[in-house]
Amino acid sequence: ASAGMTPDQIAHYQQMPAWMTIVWALGVFTAFGASILLLMRRKSAVPIFFLSLTVFLLSQFYTYVLTNGGDIMGGKMAIASLVIAVLLLLFGLYARWAKKRLILR
Question: For residue 5, what pLDDT is reported?
C-alpha cells in the first residue's frame, strides 16, 4: 500500500501461486546475473538474458492470460511490462552481438 498499490493489486499478488513467485524470482535474478556476466564480459550472459526474457514472458502470460491481472494492474503496468520485455530483448541481442565480435569471452 505504501508503494501506491490498490487493495485489488495487493490481493492479486497475495493470491499468486507459489510457482509464480518462483518464476518471478527466477526472472529477476537471471536478469541481474546476466547483467553482471555482461559487465564481466562473459559469453554466458547471452543464454541467461534470453532465459530471463522467457521467464518474464511466462509471468506476463500468467498475469494477462491466465488471470485478470491485466485489468487489475492497469495500463501503466502494461506499458512498464512492455518496456521491460523490450529491454531484455535488446540486452540479449547486444550480448549476442558482442559474443560474435569476440568482445565476450
Answer: 86
